[in-house]
Amino acid sequence: MSEAVIAGVGMTQFGKFLDRNLKSLCEEAVRDALVDANVQPSQIECVFFANAAAGVVTGQEMIRAQSSLRNTGLAGKPMFNIENACASSSSALNLARATVVSGQYECVLVVGAEKLTHEDKRVSFGAFAAAVDLEETLDATIGTGTGSVFMDIYANKTRKWMKNAGVEIEDFARVCVKSRLAGSLNSKAQFRRTTTIEEVLNSRMVSDPLTLFMCSSIGDGASAIVICSAEFARKLGVKVPVYIKACSVVSATGVPGAELVAVSAARLAYEEAGVGPEDIHVAELHDASAPAELIHYENLGLCQPGEAGALIRSGATSIGGRISVNPSGGLLSRGHPVGATGSAQIVELTEQLRGQAGSRQRPGAKVALAENNGGQMSGDSAVALVTILTT
After folding, report:
1. Could you tell me one molecular function GO term of this UniProt entry (predicted)?
2. Any idea what DSSP says for residue 356?
3. Which helix (H) or strand (E) holds 251?
4. pLDDT of the chain along its 391 residues, tens only?
5. Do 384 and 249 form a contact (C-beta atoms < 8 A)?
6. Whole-model pTM?
7. What DSSP state is assigned to residue 301?
8. How far is residue 226's CA from residue 107's CA, in Å, rounded to a whole number?
9. Is 86 an active-site residue?
10. What is the C-alpha to C-alpha distance for residues 354 and 248, in angstroms, rounded to an integer?
11. Which residues touch 227 (CB under 8 Å, ≥6 apart)?
12. Catalytically annotated residue among 26, 86, 228, 303
């Protein structure tokens, strides 16, 4: 079996672009990824296209890859359309890697893209409303907030977790301050203005205890990744090969008390990659809300239960810290165009491992982790993926 190597990455700026469509976003991300990899469209053997909400927001169903990529020089290639909630593009990465490792293909492309901005915000929020089991009875507090149903879900989880977590509301604000600082250093980020603990706490309440600044925003964007075999990477002259050492996916069982999907996915990824949480230098975590980042510290073994608050206060997860978390700005600041989020995490981590992250760089980064999840079922994410990259 061959190892899978990331040969090139590209992404658009994330933000709200009423004047751009999926085609425009995809064309930019794909072009940049191919140039970065020094690959021609003719050398791409297969495309894995991830999108979660085009059907709801734009009405485009079934052939999203074929329609979105028709002007990229990739027309006629095998294309697979992948939808897996907020974990769509990390799921595409999982499948793309498998085809390279197995020897089926030598060079493939992953594209994650989303167009969530709509003149009617109810349409945008409606894209999230169906990312739950519609026949499952939700907590009575779900749907009582002023944002999307998922912020109510995150708020409900947060209230329960806080009881024994050793955190204070200011710790959530610290996550936001850290993320906004990182976003201010990222030219592709949706939010580039720094903030303060006081401003975060005084922003509008969305769903108690989540204030506006503690919630990720809707947005648009695309990101793309060229994945190839180690031998093909050598032929391309890739200077700093980034190896996909693990990419584990776990879906929720719906059984009360079952191990959280992120915990399971992390355990499998660590085992496959032959590393542990103590080996991680830089991580991109699915911080759809500020408390989610702290919860993931525990889920991924970055700290012991009850120590997440102490970890954020210590500065160890800040840019340049022992384990830099969300140096891209994360979902809170880089943005969360759902189908592009997982692949955007990989773009950031690839740049970190190459030493190309500029003022966001974690010095000496050699091992990186991405955690991406999506949907909601029985009190847990419906799916989670953990990917580990090394040089």
Report:
1. acetyl-CoA C-acyltransferase activity
2. -
3. strand 242-251
4. 789 999 999 999 999 999 999 999 999 999 999 999 999 999 999 999 999 999 999 999 999 999 999 999 999 999 999 999 999 999 999 999 999 999 999 999 999 999 999 988 888 888 888 888 888 877 766 666 666 788 999 999 999 999 989 999 999 999 999 999 999 999 999 999 999 999 999 999 999 999 999 999 989 999 999 999 999 999 999 999 999 999 999 999 989 889 999 999 999 999 999 999 999 999 999 999 999 999 999 999 999 999 999 999 999 999 999 999 999 999 999 999 999 999 999 999 999 999 999 999 999 999 999 999 999 998 899 999 999 999 9
5. yes
6. 0.97
7. T
8. 7
9. yes
10. 23
11. 4, 5, 6, 7, 93, 96, 97, 100, 107, 108, 109, 110, 244
12. 86
The CATH classification of domain 135-215+246-390, taken from the options 3.40.190.10, 3.40.47.10, 1.10.630.10, 3.40.50.300: 3.40.47.10
Diameter over CA atoms, the chain: 58
Locate tokens 């700290």: which residue?
303
303 residue type, one letter: C
Amino acid sitting at position 112:
G
Q: DSSP 3-state assignment of 105?
A: coil
